[in-house]
Design a protein that fits this description.
alpha/beta; UDP-N-acetylmuramoyl-L-alanine:D-glutamate ligase; 3-stranded antiparallel sheet; 8 helices; about 35% helix
Length: about 290
């Protein structure tokens, strides 16, 4: 056996729904991966017909097709980090959880997309129970916004103290680390909380950015965390760098009009060159006779 040195891109897989408008879902994830110098791949959970004004229709992908997408990518290309987004049914949740376990996928970032901007619940109670039981323990971090965290813990969240209590509750439900996003709280400052089982609370605060173009903010943040984990950062570093990326994308896209509703961020405000790193690969050569 000879050890051959080669180069490899940081590889990030998005398991999420498709946004035909290009502002959120796998489209936002791929833009984020590329902007941060990573090689992006996808396993689509659902196809949506949507634009900046809202979602018109959702067509779920069969679980078998989702499983085959994940297996095809992992078996050939490999994965350094994973972002998980919209999972619309218990079968889809179980399919993803089983794939994470089967392939021992690393650095899983789970964005529990469960509540629409209108406040409508996008997931059944049964599916919520399955994702808590089967995905929480397998994810490196979950990234609920205030409404999603409230739905998970079963009570409204109105203050930063409520955010802290909710994060502790989510850890008690099996999560290894939680980023509770406080953007829905009133005020001129946006406060987020990172709480992990083995670390002190990390409170992050920044001035609120006034922009109508916020579609895909949560998708972009979670995919940026996954990208930075694939690049070798610690969890706390990845979260802080991802927040910085989202803020810059919000600022860069604030004055641009795309569509008639809530427009997208500017993911391409400052892209970096696709990165590669040296790795070793064992290659078997047949001994000459």
């Amino acid at each position: 056996m000879i050890i051959e040195l080669t180069h490899q891109y940081p590889r990030v897989l998005s398991i999420a729904g498709s946004d035909s408008g290009g502002g959120a879902g796998i489209q936002a994830d791929l833009k984020t991966f590329a902007a941060l110098g990573c090689f992006g791949m996808t396993a689509i959970t659902a196809i949506t017909a949507q634009n900046t004004c809202g979602v018109r229709a959702i067509h779920g992908v069969p679980p078998e097709m989702l499983r085959d997408q994940i297996d095809a990518v992992v078996d050939d290309i490999g994965v350094d980090a994973v972002k998980i987004g919209m999972l619309h049914s218990p079968k889809i949740v179980r399919t993803v959880a089983q794939a994470v376990a089967r392939h021992a996928l690393p650095h899983v970032v789970f964005d529990p997309v469960m509540v629409a901007t209108s406040g409508a619940k996008l997931i059944t109670d049964e599916a919520i129970g399955v994702l808590v039981a089967e995905l929480f323990p397998r994810a490196a971090i979950i990234t609920p916004n205030l409404d999603e965290a409230a739905l998970l813990v079963g009570q409204p969240l109105h203050t930063v103290q409520d955010m802290h209590q909710a994060a502790q509750t989510l850890l008690g439900m099996g999560a290894r680390a939680v980023l509770v996003k406080g953007g829905h709280l009133p005020g001129d400052q946006v406060v987020d909380l990172l709480l992990a089982t083995d670390a002190e609370p990390l409170w992050m605060q920044a001035p609120r950015i006034q922009s109508a173009n916020t579609h895909g903010t949560g998708c972009t943040l979670s995919s940026a965390i996954a990208a930075h984990l694939a690049l070798g950062l610690t969890l706390a570093e990845a979260v802080q760098q991802a927040r910085s990326f989202v803020r810059s994308a919000l600022l860069a896209g604030a004055s641009v009009k795309t569509g008639q509703g809530s427009g997208p961020l500017n993911h391409g405000f400052g892209p970096v060159v696709m990165r590669s790193r040296l790795c070793s690969e064992a290659v078997d050569f047949e001994t000459p006779r």
